[in-house]
Amino acid sequence: MNEIRTRFAPSPTGYLHVGGLRTALYNFLFARKNNGKFILRIEDTDRSRYVEGAVENLIQTLKWCDLFYDEGPDVDGPYGPYIQSQRLEIYREHVEKLVQKGYAYYCFCSPERLAALREEQLKLKVPQIKYDKHCLKLSPQEVQKKLESGEKYVIRLNIPENQTVKFYDIIRGEIEFDTNFIDDQVLLKSDGYPTYHLANVVDDHLMKITHVIRGEEWLSSTPKHILLYEYFGWEKPQFAHLPLLLNPDRSKLSKRQGDVAVEEYRAKGYLKEALINFVALLGWNAGDDREFYYLNELIEKFSLEGVNKSGAVFDLNKLLWLNGEHIRKKSVEDLLPLLKDEIKKSKYASQNFSDEYLKLVISAMQERIDFVHEIITKSYYFFERPISYEEKAIQKNWKQETPEHLNLLVDALEKLDNPSKEDYEKALNSVAEKLQISKGKIIHPLRLALSGTSAGPGIFDLLYTLGKEESIIRIKNAIQNITYKEPKTS
RNA sequence: GGCCCCAUCGUCUAACGGUUAGGACAUCACUCUUUCAAGGUGAAAAUACGGGUUCGAUUCCCGUUGGGGUCACCA
Fold first, then answer.
1. Closest nucleotide relative to residue A248's CA, C1' based
2. Does residue A231 sit in the same domain as residue A102?
3. Global pTM value
């Protein structure tokens, strides 16, 4: 049995589209699952769309996602180069073979004539706007003469009339097209570069790709590709056209309606694990109820049969939830470097926090966040003293007698030596007991004093993380700075 | 408009002729609790419509409607 080979063949537009990520992922999963090879090929045959640094960025982003390929621009393989702009000679050679066999032909029509033709057809309301094969009528001598005189030309695919092109799509089944609705596609542009259709077919064959897994937007040009395989006399790969990723309004996912770049999601603090997990589930499932996967588990479970046919709306809500899930499943040790990165990007960058301290902060906050950077925004008080005290919490929890209570607590805390969480709890309990009040009467104002807010980790985690000395300072500060407010009479 | 594809809760989906149509996100309620979360329990929420085939259709066929994709010297 032949080795399975798949490829991800993006054009370097400057960023990795999340739809592209899913296509890459499915290709990757399918190859890995079947012990095959996954190839990255750069389709940069449109010179007008050249973007500086796009290829490097694409590669970096793919690697950030852990989608490593076996052959690609920077990974040597037997069928390189893997950048189409470096394969121009190959395409020319191949397209000339088609011309010789009459499956393709030179066309010298000007853009003006083409535009006029289209306009006329539009006016006549012809069923299908197509090139009129005008240049097919040229004799070999005429063609030769024009070529020698240096006239600009393209090479077109010679689509036959009244034929049916059939192919089997793994996801959609048998699909048929009538060639009367297919245009004589340009294969080689006047600048000498191939179009997608030519380069794609030639490379997929030369690179021994066995499964073409790509987005549904390619479905209607697949008959052209089928014809090319037949004209070249090549064995066809298997096709699998993936359902599209959709905007909330169900149109094709686009920049205009939110973020589409993987880099954006990365910058916003989404974990690669969450992004991969989420995107894998858009259009595929293992047939069970499972929602949480790691990449290696996806490899194990993936099959093209599990891919469904209809488009999937990219639902930020679920991605957010998954991000939280992945954060909660990670160990404190794994989260530590992520938090350090976030600190480096924050206003606390110049400060030094010990790993021990940060780990305590992480375990206190881990189940309260959806993003790692929320450790800094939601609990800034772990990185500096409270800069203000939440007004509503003062109203609710800071009573006239609170300073007295907290002073007693400070006394109790000062007696503790290297306290554990339990020691803090005992100390607080004994103060409450002495005062004959409920623990909550102390806990709430204490939380306010320590953090400036009314929400956050358990109070003893808070005390333990901040430590005895710092806690006492904060309590004293609060006693000085918070003024009791008469309850509003309304 | 032509061609092609698609159609189960708001969203992602399960069901591959027989289920009280299941799960997840989001929403709401309850619960746990020192707060906020997380967790637990529960509620509301779907087979687009019309014909067939069949003892029986979410499931198979046809049509309608709706949505999407594509019609470049872009990929």
1. B11
2. yes
3. 0.95
Task: Tell me: do A268 and A351 sit in the same domain.
Answer: no
> Does residue A278 approach strand B to less than 7 Å at its CB?
no
Residue A253 identity? L
Task: Write the ipTM.
Answer: 0.96
Over residues A325-340, the pLDDT tens digits come to 999 999 999 999 999 9
The distance (Å) linking the CA of A372 with the C1' of B10 is 29
Whole-angstrom distance, CA of residue A264 vs CA of residue A470 = 38
CB of A307 closer than 8 Å to CB of A240:
yes
pLDDT per residue over A353-402, tens digit each? Answer: 999 999 999 999 999 999 999 999 999 999 999 999 998 888 888 888 88
- Is residue A340 part of the annotated active site? The answer reads no
- Examine the domain organization and report whether A115 and A212 are in the same domain: yes
Q: Is A25 exposed, middle or buried (0-12, 13-18, 19+ CB in 10 A)?
A: buried
List protein-proximal bases of chain B (any atom < 7 A from a CB): 1-8, 10-15, 22-26, 34-39, 67-75
CA distance A457 to A461: 6
Look at residue A118 and give its three-state secondary structure: helix
- Assign residue A416 the CATH number of its domain: 1.10.10.350
* Contact flag, residue A128 CB and nucleic strand B, below 7 A: yes
Structure tokens at A14: 């400057």
pLDDT of residue A125: 83
Regions in chain A scoring below 50 on pLDDT? 490
Q: Which residue segment(s) compose the domain that A37 sits in?
A: 5-73+245-317
Same domain, A99 and A237: yes
Single-letter residue type at A267: A
CATH, residue A253: 3.40.50.620
> Do residue A295 and residue A198 come from a single domain?
no
